[in-house]
Amino acid sequence: MNQFFEFIIENYLLSALWVFILILIIFSILKEKMRKDLIESPKAVELINKEEAIPLDVRTKEEFERGHITGSLNISIADLKQKLFKGLEKDKKRPIIIISANGMSSTEIQKLLIANNFENTFILKDGINSWKNSNLPLISKEKNKQKNKNTKNKN
User: Fold this and answer.
1) Fold classified for 38-147
2) What single DSSP character describes residue 54?
3) Cα(80)–Cα(90) distance, rounded to whole angstroms?
4) How many Å apart are CA 56 and CA 40, to the nearest integer?
């Protein structure tokens, strides 16, 4: 134990840096856990079903067509940055759930929406990956094409 204290005293700058980094990590973890606007997939389902939340998918059109949440509105990040809200303007009071590929770009979009008077915004934690990992259904363009083809064949 004496060697430990000797090391700290002799390397006080290194020790202080280590403590500072540890405090930053703990602060970051606590900050994320206390966010009420960062929601998991089950909470998103609840908001969509009970409060008619709008799932706002900010992924590219190609990613969106590969699989998206039922009722999602697809508006690219570029369009949102240019304030092209494409139908969202009339729903500023409804809850909006921002969905990205992995949740990384959602905070920036949320700030933009809040700056434009959207009152009730949420971020789907870990993006569409969270939805997939929860085994929740996705709609894709390919599935819709196959479904339409099967319906035509039956008639």
Assistant:
1) Oxidized Rhodanese; domain 1 (3.40.250)
2) E
3) 15
4) 15
User: Could you give phi then psi for residue 98, rounded to 5 degrees?
Assistant: -85, 125
**Residues 47-81 pLDDT 10s:** 999 999 999 999 999 999 999 999 999 998 888 88
pLDDT at residue 142 in the model: 62
Report domain extents, the chain.
2-34, 38-147
As beta bridge partners, residue 96 has 54, 121
Distance CA 111, CA 129 (A): 22
97 pairs with which residues across the strands?
A: 55, 122
What gap in Å lies between CA 133 and CA 44, rounded to an integer?
Answer: 14
pTM, entire model: 0.72
Q: What angle do CA 23, 28, 34 make, to 5 degrees?
A: 125
